[in-house]
Design brief:
single chain; 631 residues; 5-stranded parallel beta sheet; 3-stranded antiparallel beta sheet
Length: 631
């Protein structure tokens, strides 16, 4: 997508393109309607072709190549061409542009609602109070158009915003309408004079970089594999049509030796990780996929063999282009700039930049004798998911030239548009138009990049002695997210504020703060529990004392009652015993009296005297017992 296509005007125009481009309606009619509105609003009586292209860009945010505009101008009967100028021979009535003005107004209104919602959403997620609303609106427009914005932190926020609204059908349809309008626009870009859709009738070699080969074989997950399958199917359909017409394919899929070396190094690293010679880099999901299920190094090697076998079965071959920078002929096409290499932070990064430069140089060399401004004649292009490759590919091209490298989404759309001759209908499924899929990819990439940055910070803090190993492990354990594949992104993840801490580069401090807060909360809870326990113990002690006092009082009362009962019982028993002894004494006395009487009357006075003596002694003994009992 050209860097000239941007902001609100562009997005609104893409919606109009899609809505007015119904079935087989000619796109040139739509462009001519845009031209009419400009003629009216600017009161033009004459203009040049390039001036009209510039006005279309200023008014509607899209740069349409002069060749396409030139063909569209032929649709306006009141225009007369005179050399390089177009003369307006009759005044255009506003009624003539009523339809497109209504579409533009409706489009801008619906897009404004989305943009306002995004600004409100961003304000709730970003701590910076000075959010520039205009630039925020531009960045989401640019993301929806081509997913390329300079502020990478905003990629995560925008993709999260889109994913949180994936169940809103009207919102989703509006975004997909923009994407389908973009496909129409892309079909008009880099198009030769007089042609509506590129025929793709000249050979084109698409060079796949490492990540695309991983997409093709499923190492990067099912979603990436599905996106690649859409691309591969469109390429196959185009080649099949070409075989029927001309007996030969027009699109070849290849990879450079530099890419093959990178893949081989990747598998060697997998073997080293399995042998515990290197640590696993969690930012590369393909590595997990390779190591999963491996029981030995030979299993890793077997997966490498299966990988290349799968690549070959899809007809993706290694390129054999000769490019020797030591020779002057090739050196003039060399794009391996020393400036970019010198800015690399590590020697490994420098080597990667050099390899990217070499691959771009080869494409530059292969395009040496072609029209670089017409897509179907570019001869070669790199298909990549690497941002560095895309930025350098954009840097090394001139204005209006097709970039040296592009994305899977762009190329799939471009090929699809060519294959279907730009025709949309209700039954058409347009690959790459699903804004939610694009948001899933962007969100997972941003999370993974942010996690890698945070892990690097932790390692640096550990190496500098700022934190201990235990503290580092504690911080990592506090991360609420791990490396993601696009298909594993859920709404719950997006709604978790931790992802925005990641995007803002504040995850470590946030985890530290949370851990500190948790420790303080724990201490407060323990102190509170200790206080509660002390209070409980005091209350229990008081309760026990109170209970003991009551029990003591009850005991003493019982003891008094028992003592009284005992004394009473003893007294009763003593009284009974005493009474008994008194009775006996009385009986003795009575017996004594009987004996006295008998003595008086009897002649046996000695015997009677002895009997009386015994009675007297017994009586005294009984009296003594009575006295003792009483005492």
């Amino acid at each position: 997508m050209s860097q000239d296509v941007e902001n609100f005007k562009c997005v609104s125009s893409l919606v109009v393109f899609r809505k007015m481009y119904d079935n087989r309606q000619n796109v040139y009619d739509i462009i001519s309607e845009f031209v009419k509105t400009i003629i009216i609003s600017h009161r033009l009586v004459e203009f040049e072709l390039y001036d009209m292209c510039t006005l279309l860009k200023e008014e509607y945010g899209v740069w349409i190549v002069p060749a396409v505009v030139k063909t569209a101008l032929k649709k306006i009967e009141i225009l007369k061409r005179k050399k390089n100028e177009y003369i307006v021979e009759e005044k255009i009535s506003k009624e003539d542009t009523k339809r497109i003005n209504a579409q533009i107004s409706q489009s801008r209104s619906s897009i404004s609602v989305i943009l306002d919602d995004y600004v409100t959403y961003k304000k709730t997620k970003v701590r910076d109070e000075d959010i520039d609303e205009a630039s925020s609106k531009e960045e989401i427009c640019k993301f929806i158009v081509d997913a390329k914005i300079t502020d990478e932190s905003s990629v995560g926020i925008i993709s999260a915003f889109l994913l949180e609204r994936k169940d809103d059908l009207s919102f989703k349809n509006a975004c997909e309408c923009i994407r389908e309008g973009l496909i129409i626009y892309n079909g008009l870009s880099y198009t030769p004079v007089g042609e509506f859709v590129d025929k793709l009738d000249t050979p084109l070699t698409v060079f796949l970089q490492t990540e695309l080969l991983f997409h093709a074989t499923g190492l990067n997950g099912t979603l990436y594999q599905s996106l690649f399958s859409d691309f591969y199917q469109v390429v196959s359909d185009i080649n099949n049509d070409a075989l029927k017409r001309n007996g030969k394919r027009v699109i070849a899929l290849k990879y450079f030796p530099e890419t093959k070396e990178e893949v081989n190094r990747f598998f060697l690293k997998a073997e080293a990780i399995f042998s515990n010679q290197k640590s696993l880099d969690p930012s590369r999901p393909a590595m997990f996929k390779i190591l999963n299920g491996c029981g030995s190094v030979s299993d890793v090697k077997q997966k490498e063999i299966e990988f290349w076998s799968s690549i070959n079965s899809m007809g993706i071959k290694e390129d054999e282009t000769v490019f020797d920078v030591s020779k002057n002929y090739y050196a003039q096409y060399n794009l391996s700039g020393k400036e970019e290499i010198s800015l690399a932070e590590t020697s490994e990064d420098a080597d990667k930049i050099y390899d990217i430069g070499q691959m771009l140089s080869k494409v530059n060399y292969l395009r040496r004798n072609v029209n670089r401004g017409v897509f179907r004649t570019i001869h070669a292009i790199i298909l990549t998911g690497n941002r560095k490759t895309l930025s350098l590919g954009e840097k090394y091209k001139s204005d209006q030239e097709v970039p040296l490298a592009t994305t899977l989404s762009y190329l799939t759309n471009r090929f699809w548009y060519s294959l279907h001759k730009g025709i949309f209908n209700e039954k058409t499924t347009v690959p790459g138009a699903n804004i939610i899929t694009m948001a899933q990819v962007a969100f997972s990439q941003r999370v993974n990049e942010s996690l890698t940055d945070e892990y690097k910070k932790i390692k640096q803090q550990f190496d500098n002695g700022e934190i201990t190993k235990e503290k580092a492990c504690e911080i990592i354990a506090g991360f609420k997210m791990t490396y993601l594949q696009p298909e594993s992104v859920t709404k719950e993840m997006v709604e978790d504020d931790f992802c925005f801490d990641l995007f803002n580069g504040e995850a470590i401090e946030q985890v530290k703060a949370e851990r500190s807060l948790e420790r303080k909360k724990y201490k407060d809870e323990m102190a509170s529990k200790s206080k509660d326990l002390e209070d409980s113990n005091r209350a229990l002690d008081a309760l026990i004392r109170e209970k003991n006092q009551k029990e003591q009082q009850e005991y003493e009362k019982e003891l008094i009652r028992y003592s009284k009962f005992r004394d009473k019982s003893v007294n009763n028993q003593m009284r009974k015993k005493r009474n008994k002894q008194l009775v006996i004494l009385v009986l003795y006395f009575m017996l004594f009296m009987v004996m006295v009487v008998a003595a008086i009357l009897s002649s046996l006075k000695i015997v009677s005297g002895l009997g009386m003596l015994v009675i007297i002694i017994s009586a005294f003994a009984c009296y003594g017992k009575i006295c003792a009992t009483t005492i």
